[in-house]
Design a protein that fits this description.
With about 200 residues, this protein is mainly β. It contains no helices and ten strands.
Length: about 200
């Protein structure tokens, strides 16, 4: 019986694709003059092939100064602080080399907001990722995170309640830091019935 002496299997050839994606968020801190905040940048390769010569660039907002960074990556194995950025002015760059399909990493960088930054100033931070290979979706290669500088918490070093500047509601969540020195240290909050 020669009918079962051979078999055939059809396979579909899938073209290699690279799809780098970057996103950005605030990891820690509040946007107030003189404060230090930490951004988190997430990068991954959603394609099915290795992306070569990957470069991550973060352009820091005006009125800020870079204070440091660290990273956690899975390219493909876990590594802590495997990449050291170069910093020139307000531009921070990581050279990631080859990023495998499914590879990803978190990059954390701190900045200090200048003391002279006025309340209401806009902080615009843009992260971008690129590869020397064709990228199947260029629309997710950049991400811009925007913040507004807020009035700092009120602390009256002269120990008089009447001179403490009140903290007014501004429509956003605020983190208030209490300084305790002695029983004469004052903090003053502006609040309205129905607000927390």
């Amino acid at each position: 019986d020669y009918s079962n002496n051979s078999s055939a299997k059809a396979s579909t050839v899938v073209s290699p694709t690279r799809d780098l994606r970057v996103s950005k968020s605030l990891y820690d801190g509040g946007a107030m003059a003189g404060s230090v905040i930490t951004y988190s940048v997430y990068v991954n390769n959603q394609g099915n092939a290795v992306a070569a010569n990957v470069r991550l660039t973060d352009t820091l907002p005006l009125s800020t100064t870079y204070t440091g960074s660290y990273n956690q990556t899975y390219l493909p194995n876990y590594a802590y602080n495997a990449f050291t950025p170069t910093v020139q002015g307000n531009v921070v760059v990581w050279q990631l080399g080859d990023v495998p399909a499914g590879g990803y990493g978190y990059f954390y960088l701190g900045v200090r907001i200048q003391d002279s930054a006025p309340a209401g100033a806009i902080l615009t931070n843009t992260a971008a990722v690129s590869t020397s290979d064709p990228d199947s979706n260029a629309y997710n290669n950049t991400y811009t995170y925007v913040q507004t500088v807020h009035v700092p918490d009120a602390y009256e070093p002269d120990n008089t309640f009447s001179q403490a500047r009140p903290i007014t509601t501004d429509g956003v969540s605020q983190r208030h830091n209490f300084h305790y020195g002695d029983s004469a240290d004052w903090l003053r909050f502006g609040a309205t019935l129905g607000q927390e």
